[in-house]
Design a protein that fits this description.
- It contains twelve helices and nine strands.
- The protein is of the alpha/beta class.
- Strands 1, 2, 3, 4, 5, 6, 7, 8 and 9 form a nine-stranded mixed β-sheet that branches.
- It starts with a helix and ends with a strand.
- About 35% of the residues are buried.
Length: about 260
């Protein structure tokens, strides 16, 4: 999706991402769990943005490579971490074609903040294949993805019902805008689909974002990954029961798995 990349290439957008520094609750949980493995690990941080995750993971790993398909994001990272050790490197790279890296290069691959949701369904499959290729067998892969269970509520008119007039008016306006920008989508699409790409309002309604059911995401990972675990956005805790994973309605979820 070309428009998505144009947005991330904008210098003002990149500067905004470079101001971010906090980890999300699942990232904190996963960092704690992986900490014993990180000092000997070579890490690939895909979609590094302005270096938010670099601050927390880069200091623990043996070698760190941050990549992004936005040259503006990489420029911000290089500026932000110019005084850091040479073990931190940044380079422009499209996750769909990472030919600059050899097979089995990385012990840990991270793709945070739903970066994988900014491409088409076909390109998403390419990214997962490339990540599997550059990952070392037995190593770890962590990423987050938007949850279609949550998004289904966005196009449900019953959410407009409220005894609070201000809330009802505000919600109605947002609902009408979503319908305007996604006029081909109906609530039935959400009930039946395993995934959908639509305008959810991100970056002033300029982007198309991929949403997927947890069950469909797990199925997509099973061919190339093992020991797949799911973490809730709201609490950072692992969701261990499969039925709870499939019913979860967090706006996005974190997945942690290992390379086969």
């Amino acid at each position: 999706m070309v428009q998505n990349k144009k947005i991330f290439e904008a210098k003002d957008v990149a500067r905004g991402y470079a101001l971010q520094s906090h980890l999300q609750p699942p990232e904190e949980t996963i960092l704690r769990e992986l900490l014993p493995h990180l000092p000997t690990a070579k890490m690939l941080d895909i979609g590094v943005g302005g270096g938010r995750t670099t601050l927390h993971f880069g200091k623990w790993v043996r070698e760190y490579v941050g990549t992004d398909y936005s040259e503006s994001m990489i420029a911000e990272c290089r500026k932000r971490f110019s005084g850091y050790p040479d073990s931190l490197k940044f380079q422009a790279c499209d996750a769909r074609a990472m030919g600059m890296f050899e097979d089995g290069t990385f012990d840990f691959v991270l793709f945070s903040f739903n970066g994988i949701d900014c491409v088409s369904h076909e390109d998403r499959a390419k990214i997962l294949q490339e990540i599997r290729r550059v990952g070392k067998p037995g190593g770890y892969f962590c990423f987050s993805a938007h949850n279609l269970n949550w998004a289904a509520n966005l196009f449900e008119w019953r959410r407009l019902l409220s005894l609070n007039p201000k809330f009802a008016v505000r919600t109605a306006k947002r609902f009408l805008l979503r319908c305007l920008y996604n006029w081909r989508i109906r609530s039935a699409n959400f009930r039946d689909a395993a995934y959908l790409i639509f305008n959810d309002g991100a970056h002033y309604r300029q982007m198309q974002i991929y949403y997927i059911r947890p069950q469909a995401q797990l199925e997509a990972l099973q061919a190339n990954f093992t020991d797949i675990r799911v973490f809730a956005l709201a609490t950072g805790a692992e969701i261990k029961a499969l039925d709870e994973v499939n019913r979860n309605e967090d706006v996005w979820l974190y997945y942690l798995c290992r390379f086969k």
